[in-house]
Amino acid sequence: MNDADGRIAIREIGPIFEITIDRPEKYNGFTPKMFRELSDAYNTYEESRHLHCAVISANGNHFTAGLDLPKMAEHLKDDFIMATEGKIDIFGLRPPYRTKPVLCAVKGICFTLGIELMLASDIVIAAENCRFAQIEVQRGIIPGGGATGRMVDRAGWGNAMKYLLTGEEFDAQTAKSLNFVQEIVPVGEEKTRALQLAEMICESAPLAVQHTLINARSVKLHGEEAGYQELGKIQRSLLQTSDFQEGLKSFKEKRRPKFSGK
């Protein structure tokens, strides 16, 4: 029997952490229970050294219609929606920030929360049938997961405001043109493609992947000068790892490296 409040299912596929939104009978609309479980999943991923890349997808025909507003209204009063001090925020709006990559595979309806989750991820694969909309202004609220800044950053002021202020729908091609998604694939292939990219990421040195992500975020949050001042320190620390020695050895031996994350 399905849980009326939905769930977030998790599964490990080797070093890949698969996170699945599971409330298809309600278009995967988010409840407080799902919010808490997604937060728990993010923190489990961050704390598990053997997991190197996460993929978020959804059961059913749609990624998510957004918040189940009657169930979530009370939590919209929070400074950061249902965030726990000292834990990873699913939207990445305040520290501590996650240090490992998240890929998002979206399909069908991807409204409000769905857009904010994908903008908070690192790579987005969209099915060609995606319908996007940031409709909070039509409900008397504002986006609470970072879209007000990230849409402007990706698309420019006017392009972002066109959708933030009107709630107008846009399709996958428009989302790609606005830099909200990176690839568009046929319906049903979005998760497969995201998992392919996750596998490629997992073939790279885990510490190098993490520090690439951390430094890119540092540049974004603190400016180029501050971020680039960290490069030498990061590189020196990576040169001391077993993974660098393996990368060097595999280069000389003309073979694929086998990294240990150490």
Written account of the structure:
- The chain has a 6-stranded mixed beta sheet, sandwiched between helices. Strands 5-7-8 form a 3-stranded mixed beta sheet.
- It is built from 11 helices and 9 strands.
- The chain starts with 6 loop residues before the first strand and ends in a 9-residue tail after the last helix.
- Helices cover 40% and strands 16% of the residues.
- The protein folds into 2 domains: 7-202, 2-enoyl-CoA Hydratase, Chain A, domain 1, CATH 3.90.226; 206-253, Lyase 2-enoyl-coa Hydratase, Chain  A, domain 2.
- It has helices at residues 32-47, 69-72, 113-119, 147-155, 157-164, 172-177, 190-202, 206-222, 224-228, 231-239, 242-253, and strands at residues 7-13, 16-22, 53-58, 102-106, 109-111, 123-127, 131-133, 170-171, 183-185.
- Strand 1 (7-13) and strand 2 (16-22) form a beta hairpin.
- The mean pLDDT is 95.
- Helix 4 (147-155) packs across helix 5 (157-164).
- With 262 residues, it is α/β, with parallel strands linked by helices.
Binned, the helix content reads 40-55%
CATH homologous superfamily of the largest domain, by name?
A: 2-enoyl-CoA Hydratase, Chain A, domain 1
The CATH topology of the largest domain is 2-enoyl-CoA Hydratase, Chain A, domain 1
Count of individual beta strands:
9
Structural class: alpha/beta
Identify the CATH class of the largest domain.
Alpha Beta
Mean model confidence by pLDDT: 95
Give the termini distance in whole angstroms. Answer: 44 Å
Strand content: 15-25%
CATH architecture verdict of the largest domain:
Alpha-Beta Complex
Largest sheet: 6 strands, mixed
Q: In sequence order, what are the helices and strands, one letter per element?
A: EEHEHEEHEEHHEHEHHHHH
